[in-house]
């Protein structure tokens, strides 16, 4: 059974007064469209990323309001390093600013922060901020906020396979015992429920190397809104779409 399979709660339980549908335990979002949002306004791309950071605040609040337990945000892919140097400076600068200015407030809201991806590629001061954010929010439990930074699912899966191969060679892992659950425990998301719902904004309909293993059974929702315009109503709409879908995990209709 997939980890996420049991990870969906009844809406009536999650939201007093609400009723009927299902609330995903884990929502993952591909935040796309910052650049196009800025271009449509004749603004530089960094203006779109700044507005995107405001939308991050809104989606965290929406996740708390809707009692979603886990929220994963794709903030920077391993491919994003190929963008022009000036945009990388802008994006990493924004990340630095976000970490320095937002973590105290997020912690006060009960948010526990965690980062996945190749954090070693960031400057040392950002790596320190990431570790600090995880440390100061570690005891919180209202919302688990996972931010994917320099993340690529294929690299993550290859690293897990490499780790398993090395353990087998060292004699500490019997290949016959490399089950799906064991393999999942070697991924950077070990201990995290699989995403029940993956949302992508901006109208693009791709996963772009995001949570390829973990999202095996996720419902996919693609929204025609640029990320900087994303708000509570879009989040609620995606949850409503999720609740309408019938999830069978490959089983026949009963
Ligand atoms: C995709 O839009 C967005 C990104 C590559 C960066 C995401 C960053 C943020 C939402 C802001 C910062 C986040 C944090 C957590 C501080 P795009 O630039 O690919 O847009 P386009 O496809 O329209 O060009």
Task: Write structural notes for this entry.
- Helix content is 41%, strand content 17%.
- By secondary structure, it is α/β, with parallel strands linked by helices.
- It has one domain (2-244): Decaprenyl diphosphate synthase-like (Undecaprenyl pyrophosphate synthetase), CATH 3.40.1180.
- A 6-stranded parallel β-sheet has the order 5-6-4-3-7-8, sandwiched between helices.
- The chain is globular, with a radius of gyration of 19 Å.
- It starts with 7 loop residues before the first strand and ends in a 10-residue tail after the last helix.
- The site of farnesyl diphosphate has 18 residues, from helix 2, helix 3 and helix 4.
Any key phrases for this structure?
254 residues, alpha/beta, 6-stranded parallel beta sheet, two-stranded antiparallel sheet, 8 helices, 41% helix, disordered N terminus
Helix and strand arrangement:
Layout: E1 8-10, H1 11-14, E2 22-24, E3 26-30, H2 34-40, H3 45-65, E4 70-77, H4 85-108, E5 111-116, H5 124-136, E6 143-151, H6 153-170, H7 180-184, E7 197-200, E8 219-222, H8 232-244
Parallel strand pairs: 3-4, 3-7, 4-6, 5-6, 7-8
Antiparallel strand pairs: 1-2
Helix pairs in contact: 2-3, 3-4, 4-5
Bound molecules: farnesyl diphosphate.
Farnesyl diphosphate binds next to α2, α3 and α4.
